[in-house]
Amino acid sequence: MIGNRGRVTGKIGPGLVGEVMISIRGGVEAFYAYPAEAGEVIEPGEQILVVDHQPPRSVYVQRWLPLG
Amino acid sequence: MPEGLLLVAISVVAGILVFVILLRMLWKVAEPNEALIISGLGTGSTPKSRPDSMGFKIITGKGTLVLPGFQVARRLSLDTNGANLQVSCVTQQGLPVTVRAVVIYKVGDDFVSIANAARRFLDRQDGMNSTIHELFSGHLRSICGGLTIEDLIHNRDALTGAVRQSSADEMSKLGLVIDSLQIQEIDDESGYILNLGKPHAAAVAASARIAEAERDQEATEAEQQAAAKKAASVRESEIQQAGYQAEMDQARAKSSQSGPLAEASARQEVVVQETRAAELEANLSEQRLLSEISKPADAKAYETRTVADAERDARIARAQAEAKETELKAAADATRVKTAAQAEAEATKARGSAEADATRATGEAEAAAARAKGMAEADAARAKGLAEAEGIRARAAALAENQEAVVAQQLAENWPEIVDAGAKAFSNIDNLVVLNGADGMSELFGKALSLGGTGLGLAKTLMQSMQNETATETATQNGTVHTIPVERDEQPSKN
């Protein structure tokens, strides 16, 4: 779960419950997403990296930074 | 043998059947849309990673042996469920609205959610909807309270965000996941939405009316243009038709006239042909006239003309030839006459001189002779006179009887002298021009010498003159006139 990449479907920001779609268990599931770094805002459509998982369905994410 | 085999087979089949039935009873398989919750013996084994146990086993997507009596297997549906909600709520603007919505939810696929849901709903799966309904009505109220009507209507992101924000934790508690919240209907008692839409509606209606009017105008214009064009084309076609009609009428009139016209033209043709025939006949008769009368007349005229021309030419030629001949003859005659005259002159001269000499000589001789002769002649004359008197008497008598014969005799007796006298008439001529050609000379001579009835008088005169000359005995320059001795019948002359 942690280390998976996902796509933002609902805006992630402070005071918001975001939504990310993550490929898992052979399917794609929606998880509630919160920014790993406080104050970060991630708009829908961006790629994220799951850095923490709060069962059952909450993940902490940060913006996916491609190398280079 | 066969019975033993059959028994064995039957027992085998029965054994297989028993085994299958046992398996069917003991072996449980979780289908994709459900989770097996197994509790009982051996399910409470705790994983080393987790300090506390769920106290049951969750099986998804696999089969497992369930020992009856020791274990209990329950199925938890993971299917989605839809809960219809109808909530009267107040929006952020304080507008009372009735919202009808449907919420689509399911049990979460992770074991935590399944465990939560199993703990809450395993026996009350049918009642899940009501629970959710109750739960979500409150949530929907809070969601609506946090949103404006415009957001409710338009802003899907805001709605879903609000739904998540309000319901995420509680849904997690229940082990459920909201797949979707759909607001189906918003009943607005205040007419806000209606009024919200009215400007747009009015604008739309206005624009629609404008567009309609414009399109109507355009269509009308187009129609009018088309009608005008149609009218124009109709007019043109009618004009053309009228023209064609006129042409047809004209053609018909022409064709109706064409009978008489053809007749007339045929008649005209006949007349023309007849005229032509008449002309031809006239020509023919003319030709006939020409060939029968005019041509022969022409030929005759031509012949006559030609003959006349030829004659004239011949005459001219003859006249020219005669003129030439006459000229030549005249020249020759002149020459001859000239030479003759010259010769004669010479001769005369010579003769004159000779005669003069002779005359002188003879004169003397004759004088002597004459004396003698005179004497003799005197005698002879007497005798002759007597004789002549007699002869004359006799001749007179004869003359009385036959004058002509006497004269002719006289003439015959005297021919040489007559001719001589005639020739003497020419001897004196130097240059004689005869106008009547060669015939003239002969004519002249003829006239001179003719012995016709007219010439007798001339002969008489000639004889008379000769007798006179003999009587006178004169000698002329032209020559001597010899007296012709007239012999008497009775007496011969004496010598």
Quick structural gist:
The complex is a heterodimer of chains A (68) and B (495). Chain A is mostly beta strands. Chain A is 0% helix and 53% strand.
What would you note in describing this structure?
The complex is a heterodimer of chains A (68) and B (495). Chain A is built from no helices and five strands. With 68 residues, chain A is an all-beta fold. In chain A, β1 and β2 form a beta hairpin. The termini of chain A are far apart. By secondary structure, chain B is mainly alpha-helical. Helices cover 70% and strands 12% of the residues of chain B. The N and C termini of chain B lie far apart (244 Å). Classes of the chains: A mainly beta (68), B mainly alpha (495).
Radius of gyration of chain A, CA atoms, in whole angstroms:
11 Å
Task: Using a beta-carbon cutoff below 8 angstroms, give the protein chain pair with the largest interface and the number of residues from each chain.
Answer: A-B, 16 and 16 residues
Q: State the helicity of chain B in percent bands.
A: 55-70%
Content of β-strand of chain A: over 45%
Largest sheet of chain B, order of strands side by side?
3-2-5
Number of strands of chain A: 5
Q: Termini separation of chain A (Å)?
A: 25 Å
- In DSSP terms (H or I, runs of 4 or more residues), the helix count of chain B works out at 9
Number of strands of chain B: 8
List low-pLDDT spans of chain A: none
User: Low-confidence parts of chain B, pLDDT < 50 over ≥5 residues?
Assistant: 473-477, 479-483, 487-495
Main sheet overview of chain B? 3 strands, antiparallel
Mean pLDDT over the full residue set of chain A: 89
SS element count, helices of chain A = 0
Biased composition (Low complexity) (chain B): 222-231
Domain Flotillin C-terminal (chain B): 364-474
Organism (chain B): Actinoalloteichus fjordicus
Region (Disordered) (chain B): 215-234, 240-267, 344-364, 468-495
Please write out the topology:
The complex is a heterodimer of chains A (68) and B (495).
Chain A: E1 5-10, E2 18-24, E3 27-35, E4 47-54, E5 58-63
Parallel strand pairs in A: 3-5
Antiparallel strand pairs in A: 1-2, 1-4, 2-3, 4-5
Chain B: H1 2-26, E1 27-29, E2 34-40, E3 57-60, E4 63-65, E5 71-77, E6 81-90, E7 96-107, H2 111-121, H3 128-145, H4 149-153, H5 156-174, E8 176-188, H6 192-401, H7 403-427, H8 437-449, H9 453-472
Antiparallel strand pairs in B: 1-4, 2-3, 2-5, 6-7, 7-8
